[in-house]
Amino acid sequence: MDEQIRKTVLRMIPYGLYVLTGGSQDSTIASATINWVTQTSFVPPLLALGIKTDSAIYAEASKSGDLVLNILGREQGNLAFAFFKPVPYADGRLGDYEVRWAANGAPILACVPAAVELKVRQIVELGDHHTFVCEVTGVYLTKDIAGRPDDAILHMKDLGEKVFYGG
């Protein structure tokens, strides 16, 4: 298989950008920018998330099973970049960002337009990112969304011509 063609073709799959958080006020907090997310079931509502196996969020998700998928707004590229690396939690803030707490105890970034509370139901251990199948246990909408909801989110392409992941 031609590697450059493979990269080009796989990069044609559109990606949203999200910050996945896990842990609680009484434990370690982990977070990371992720982009491999899709809904896989309506009843029960399930999402599949690709999580890098050597990340802190992978360890926390595997241990606690309680997560929050923070959905980034179209103009929140700064958040995507901020969570590409580990971010410390202190004094009610994850890095520079204030947090609230989901019912499952995981942190929600207060500045995001929406968030999804998740419970890990199964982990498929294949490749360098494992697939976490998670049940939606709560949703949070912090502002009204005008127009198509998927037009309100940050996409990988919004970060610039030279920012890619995957392929």
TrEMBL record:
A molecular function (GO) term: FMN binding
InterPro entries: Flavin_Rdtase-like_dom, NADH-dep_flavin_reductase, Split_barrel_FMN-bd
Keyword Oxidoreductase listed: yes
Family: Belongs to the non-flavoprotein flavin reductase family.
Origin superkingdom: Bacteria
Keyword Oxidoreductase among record annotations: yes
SMART domains: Flavin_Reduct
SUPFAM superfamilies named in the record: FMN-binding split barrel
Native organism: Acetobacter garciniae
Domain Flavin reductase like: 10-151
Keywords, ordered alphabetically: Oxidoreductase
Name recorded for this polypeptide: Flavin reductase
